[in-house]
């Protein structure tokens, strides 16, 4: 007799229990969301809000729309093919998977250097620790998580708790700063200024490089794949995009309230920490401590997400890697990131803005390969008829990201040498 129970142990499509599948989807949502709202995005938001004011709202909207198209396509294709992104690329266009893997790993390494720097800035604001020491402590915590015998469970729990913590605190600061909501809403659609380098950087900091594949690869590792799970995966992707979209806008409003109030934020000085300044102006010393907590939570989850996702691309070079071997490789990845963070003299805030731009330049390469696979290689997805509307949106987004990259490559690399 057919079961009608909806209990937590009810079998979901694909043979896993509903509880297990729900846990996998929540883990993927928060891995994508916390990767997208890391210290890079927070610093970029403060830097560009100080520069553009309410007009930066348009860049936030652009990043959300691009995120929508990119994540729906990537999650869908990975789910249907049951393969990692680099393997999909190799199957679609032989050799491109290796190129994509190298780009994502290198971009992820740069991003993780910035993430560790962000964790140092967070502990500096929260506890007054030297940023280098704070970054080192945070990297060691992340390494400890991956060395744990229950690394997978630890990763999921840390990311979910830290993500909820970030949301609550940011909403509070946005309320305290009293931003000009009307002007921000107007310029979301009719901006007074459009800056392609800014849009490329913020897109790269929220959906570029490794971030593009973080949630999809987590679903793959959890076994939430196949056409039978497609509906749930689509809903999870949309939920993740909604969470990140709201969080991006709320963070922008929190900082806009400070900028609109006339506060001058230093975005270029050697010790500049734009977001910390904004939070301190909004809520005094308490605001500084809140910023430190938010920034550290964003940074530690991004260190985990960047390392986890970047190393997941290493398997294209070694098909037989066990989960334990991947965890060890992830530890090495974090240790290398920490080493470079310690020796590099570029200010952490400046590095966080640059790596967003760098990953924004990587985004159109991977997206182009995926859209080609969806368009021409339905055999990789078991003959699944891919939605034409999603393909068209994907192709248009590819063209847009290529154009933005072309227009902004010079300004992005100039960030490394800016005063």
What would you say this structure looks like, in words?
The termini are far apart. The longest helix has 39 residues, at 274-312. With 419 residues, the chain is an all-alpha fold. The protein has helices at residues 18-36, 39-52, 56-81, 85-92, 96-127, 131-147, 151-177, 181-189, 196-207, 211-222, 230-260, 274-312, 323-343, 348-376, 388-414.
Keyphrases for this structure?
disordered N terminus; mainly alpha
Number of strands: 0
Count of helical regions? 15
Poorly predicted regions are: 1-11
Largest β-sheet summary: none
Strand content: under 5%
Radius of gyration: 20 Å
Task: Detail the topology: elements first, then pairings.
Layout (H helix, E strand, L loop, with lengths): L17 H19 L2 H14 L3 H26 L3 H8 L3 H32 L3 H17 L3 H27 L3 H9 L6 H12 L3 H12 L7 H31 L13 H39 L10 H21 L4 H29 L11 H27 L5
Helix pairs in contact: 1-7, 1-10, 1-11, 1-12, 2-9, 2-11, 2-12, 2-14, 3-8, 3-9, 3-10, 3-11, 3-14, 3-15, 4-5, 4-14, 5-6, 5-12, 5-13, 5-14, 6-12, 6-13, 7-11, 7-12, 9-14, 9-15, 10-12, 11-12, 12-13, 14-15
Could you give a short description of this structure?
This protein has helices at about 20-35, 40-50, 55-80, 85-90, 95-125, 130-145, 150-175, 180-190, 195-205, 210-220, 230-260, 275-310, 325-345, 350-375, 390-415. It is mainly α. α5 runs antiparallel to α12.
